[in-house]
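Internal tracking record. Fields below are filled automatically when a chain is submitted to the structure queue. Please do not edit lines marked as system-generated. If the sequence contains nonstandard residues, flag them in the REMARKS field before resubmitting.
Queue: standard
Priority: normal
Entity type: single polypeptide chain
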Amino acid sequence: MRPVSEQRDRVEKRRAYAEAGILVYLPIDCDTCEVVSTPPVGVTLDTESLKD
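SYSTEM-GENERATED OUTPUT FOLLOWS
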């Protein structure tokens, strides 16, 4: 996630996705390859392959 798009990624897209019925939105930080949101309970994410 880039600083320029942080507001859009964290707020606007999350709202738009929810309104469209998409219940899970997990943005990923492009620099660290880390999910910058808490995944739903019971969901495990492996982002190791994104680091290549």
